[in-house]
Amino acid sequence: MQKNIKKKVIELYKKGFGCVTITKKLKIPKQHILKILNSEKIIRKRNRCDYLEYDKKDEYFIINRVCPKCNDLVETKSKNKTIACRNHFTKIKKKSLCKRCSLKLQIGKGNPFYGKKHTNKTKQKISKSRKGKATGINNSMSNLEFRTKANKNLKKSWESGKLENTRKKMSECMKKTLRSGKIKSKVSSKKEKEIYELLINHGYKVKRFFKIDTKICDLYIPSLNLIIEYFGDYWHCNPKKYSYDYINQKKQMTAKQIWDYDKHKVDLIISYGYNLEVIWESDFKTNTNKILTIINKYDKSINTTPERS
Ligand SMILES: [Zn+2]
Questions:
Q1: Residues 73, 96 within the same domain
Q2: What is the DSSP letter of 308?
Q3: 72 CA → ligand 1 middle, Å
Q4: Residue 74 CA to ligand 1 centre (angstroms)
Q5: Are 212 and 271 in contact (CB under 8 A)?
Q6: Which residue stretches of the chain have pLDDT < 70?
Q7: 34 and 79 share one domain
Q8: Domain count, the chain
Q9: Distance, CA of 240 to CA of 278 (rounded, Å)
Q10: CA of 152 to the centre of ligand 1 (A)
Q11: Cα–Cα dist 82/88, whole Å
């Protein structure tokens, strides 16, 4: 009996059947078959991996195949040569497409979720499972280290020009919104309002939230062609109080970034031909009236007295 099986196994194997097929045919475990073949020293070497051409890049073995759809080269890579080989053959067997082709298939109707919606029950489930997660300090973005890292990476992509299309779209969209007047006001401070009222009380015609291109300015006095920007010490990181690397938590920007941003606005206002005065909170904290002294510089009607030399 034993001998009969042995003979049969050898016979089948020599005919070219593989171990798995023999296992199925004779209904004996594969291990058993391997044992027989090994004892006869006739086991075939599985050498399909030896025929492959491998590229070596760093620690990786790379095997190329062709995408069945677009005929582009697709890489299969692994640090382990055998795994790279196995994955390569599995992908060929499955007729796997390249990443681009398979993503394309998932657009629209090809997407498994196309036309489907989560049921209310599922929504509740998702909501429940997300509750309390990734909020507050559990959100990785609350960690300054990660935030700085993300910021750095984004900046890198931004500066490399990779996001140029995104930037253009965002910029155009925002400019459109601002020019259309959809955004009319901005956050204004008590002090700003105080200055506004002071100027009105002194007979000036003043416009608030005056728009120049895409920027909204605090105050504008048309008769003096003068823009007044009121800078809160904290919000604009008064250089008298903050160093360049101070991180403004509310704005999530460094003082230097805020100064650069403000400088850009200032330059823009001047480039449009307006007079400009920047008024710092700390300079006018005690005496708002001081602002009149500054404005008088522009008021020709006051400067009519001839200068004495
Ligand atoms: Zn493809």
A1: yes
A2: P
A3: 6
A4: 8
A5: no
A6: 1, 45-46, 181-188, 300-309
A7: no
A8: 4
A9: 14
A10: 33
A11: 10
Q: How far is the CA of 73 from the centre of ligand 1 (A)?
A: 8
Whether residues 236 and 289 fall in one domain = yes
Token duo for residue 115? 């036309």
Task: Determine the distance separating the centroid of ligand 1 and the alpha carbon of 99, expressed in angstroms.
Answer: 7
The alpha carbon of 130 and the centre of ligand 1 are apart by a number of angstroms equal to 36
Alpha carbon of 69 to ligand 1 centroid (Å): 5
Ligand 1 centroid to Cα of residue 154, in Å, is 29
Could you list the residue range(s) of the whole structural domain that residue 54 is in? 48-105
Q: Is 228 buried (19+), middle (13-18) or exposed (0-12) by CB count in 10 A?
A: buried
Can you tell me whether residue 228 is helix, strand or coil? strand
Structure tokens at 18: 């593989």
Tokens of 81: 């040569």
| pTM as predicted | 0.42
CA 212, CA 219: separation in Å to the nearest integer? 11
Angle at which helices 19-26 and 30-39 pack, to 10 degrees?
120
Domain match, 201 and 246 both: yes
Characterize 84-94 residue by residue with b for buried, 16 or more Cβ atoms within 10 angstroms of its Cβ, and e for exposed.
bbebbeebeee
CATH of the domain at 286: 3.40.960.10
Which residue, chain included where needed, has tokens 């008024």? Answer: 279
C-alpha 111 to ligand 1 mean position (Å): 17
Whether residue 216 is found in the same domain as residue 196: yes
Q: Are both 205 and 155 inside the same structural domain?
A: no
Helix extents (H) in the chain: 2-15, 19-26, 30-39, 48-51, 81-93, 99-105, 120-130, 144-160, 164-179, 190-201, 255-271, 281-284, 290-296
**Residue 173 falls inside a structural domain:** yes
Tell how far the Cα of 240 is from the centroid of ligand 1, in angstroms. 60
Please give the distance, rounded to the nearest whole angstrom, from the Cα atom of residue 106 to the centre of ligand 1. 13
Residues 20 and 59 in one domain: no
99 domain-assigned: yes
pLDDT at residue number 309: 39
CATH number of the domain enclosing 14: 1.10.10
